[in-house]
Amino acid sequence: MSAMCFSSHNVGGIAHQPGPARLVSFTAALMAMIVASAPAAAETVTVFAAASLTTALTQVAEQYEDTEGGEIALSFAGSSALARQIQLGAPADIFISANPDWMDLLQAGDLLDPDSRTDLLGNSLVLIAHEPIDHVDLNADLDLSALLRPGRLAMALTQAVPAGIYGRAALDTLGLWDQVATQVVETDNVRAALALVALGEAPLGVVYATDARANPDVHVIATFPPDSHPQITYPAALLYGPAGEEAGGFLTFLLGPDARAVFEAEGFTVLGD
What we know:
This protein is an alpha/beta fold. The protein folds into two domains: 45-121 and 233-270, Periplasmic binding protein-like II (D-Maltodextrin-Binding Protein, domain 2, 3-Layer(aba) Sandwich), CATH 3.40.190.10; 125-228, 3-Layer(aba) Sandwich (D-Maltodextrin-Binding Protein, domain 2). It has helices at 20-37, 54-68, 79-87, 100-108, 144-148, 162-173, 177-180, 190-198, 209-214, 245-254, 257-265, and strands spanning 9-11, 14-16, 45-50, 72-77, 94-96, 118-122, 125-129, 153-156, 184-187, 204-208, 219-223, 233-238, 269-270.
């Protein structure tokens, strides 16, 4: 016997059974009650972040999903490419740039919440090599071109990507850029420059210190003086995206102690309080 029964009833001497339309109506009402009582699904928070954050931010996002239950989608690339995608309407909720300039551009275009903007992290710049060689002193007397022969110096785009911009500024300040300008191979982002050196496609490269730590196939042979380039700062901000409250929750998490521990373990400087 069925657990749910529909009794017949008599109208005008004709016995009526519940027909298909009546069953559909009941089923629709039941489904509506179930949907109404179920908790609303949280929006996925989409984060556009500088490629140099790949290792650390992936760990932080996994930690957040485990402890808070939200869902984080990460997209890594050069800050310039990400900013342009956002300008073209890419559906992102949080942007973390590797320098303030691209964040300034989005803020000027009224594409982010300025009250949410915060300087999240700092970094340093290093010269890496594929082969383990002696530490070098970065100054105008260094024959950097001789260290490269016959290879290339891998750098992120020096006119667009923050790591490349910082790197060129440092080489200019130290009087080394003119030596190697014709030997530079430029990549779309700093992780691509790192990969060229790790694979031995380029003998030397300029990357962030955190990138060098993330790959055991490269060797740090020098650290650029902090005053040889603009301060390396990673601002973060909420974009006017669909995730709203959930995005705000993840940004708050990025500023908290659990994320701080991950960032510091990966070699970043955590800015602010």
